[in-house]
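Anyone? Bumping this.
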Amino acid sequence: VRRVVVTGLGVIASTGKDSEAFFTNLVEGRSGVRRITQFDPSALSVQIAAEIPDYRPTDYFPNKRLDLLDRFTEFGLIAAREAMETSGLEVREEERRRFGVMMGSGMGGAQTYEVGYCSLYAKGATRVHPFTIPKSMHNAATSQICMEFGAQGPSLSTSTACSSAGHAIGTAFHHIKFNLADVMLAGGSESPVTFGIMRFWESVRVMATGNGDASHACRPFSADREGLVLGEGAAVLVLEELEHARRRGATIYAELAGYGLSSDAGHITQPTIDGPTRAIQMALDEASLNPQDIEYINAHGTGTRLNDSTETQVLKQAFGAHACKLAISSTKSMHGHAMGATAALEAAATVLALQKRVIPPTANYTDPDPECDLDYVPNQARELPIRAALSNSFAFGGLNAVLLLRRFE
Amino acid sequence: VEIQSASKLEGGVSLGISNREEKITMDVAAKVIEIIAREQHLELDAIKLDSSFEQLGIDSLDGVNILFALEEEFKIDIPDSVAQNMKGVRQVVDSLTRVLEGRDISDLVAMAKGDTQPVTN
């Protein structure tokens, strides 16, 4: 059986513009949620988001290149660059056809769509910029990453809302495991902080306003939780077949050992218990692990009333009595809910938790909720030499993705 | 951006038209070069009237982008049948001149000299 390991990591998020800064801030419990700066949010009832602070595209790309990049693609490229750099990987010409890219995004080039629609509908323009399509298409991030690194192997983009990046990473994992590729860049990117999308989310009534205290707005599993906070960013993992990694003496961060996916086929927004439970079981089965072998769960943990209580029930169903022994944390409390990128940010956090033997906390935890009565690693990081962990993603639409990562030994 | 004066353009433009109209065509050429330079992020003097798109590194998608910019700036529609013959700077100027036929030329001169605001989105 071909084994798959993580040999590189790249992140750009509100909590850090590279993977080291990202993880350090998570461990220290620092939130990236602030008042929105990309536009004037005064007209919105929700005026906060986990935006990347002081982001200047020209720090990363020449102007000619930027003409064709939506913000979500920029983030994807930046994360992919760090992932490649940390991996030390140099893909030779003859290896390119075994090297692919899989990126998730829920909204794709939403900012570009918005500019186009605004000029058509609001300003009465009769034509829009010809780069609107190549900038906004959901596969733009995947394709631009392929072009930058010469990846000519199996490549695609996924769009399954909050699970997008989980499905991208899982699918990439299986492509290596089942011998369709040797190296994959996999993750997700999202740039959902626009006036329109904020309005759309407001109307769903699942958003935290923060009441003037942005950094404490997102309080997953806490009794006083008031909803989710949108975030932006990207994360990319370098996935590599174990022997391929060994031959070149690569640093191995962790092993990706299992992937489970399922569909609730229930409700378009309300999660079920059965669907996510089956995804967890599937990931455990693939890795040939027992529920008792799992020590840490990077939870979906959005901070909404319904998600967090349902996810707690899911963990009880999947792990039985062992659920009480799990260390569970929602890093969304700090990097926000980055939609199609979030599963990649959380997979990166899980990989680093395994490698650095420290679990980032659930920030902003205040009061216990009787419906959420497990160990959510409240507010303080925990040093723990964990060996196996899950990263959960349960999307709107009932499409679930669970990644099982373990320390490589 | 300072518009390059027509007299600096190499190659000249000979369309078999009167001096007055030739002057106008030179103004169009200057505006076209300015637009190409802006859209391609090139220096003005890197673009000659005889430059082909290929020489300037302008691919098919770049070409569509330049057409869009020309349509916006000159407030015209360039039909596909005309657009597909635009493979170099001179062809753009020639085609544009034909598209602009019958229009009030003083407007165009003013626009080419940068006296009017281009249409923006």
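Late reply, but here is one note on the structure posted above: The CA atoms of residues 15 and 94 of chain B lie 8 Å apart.
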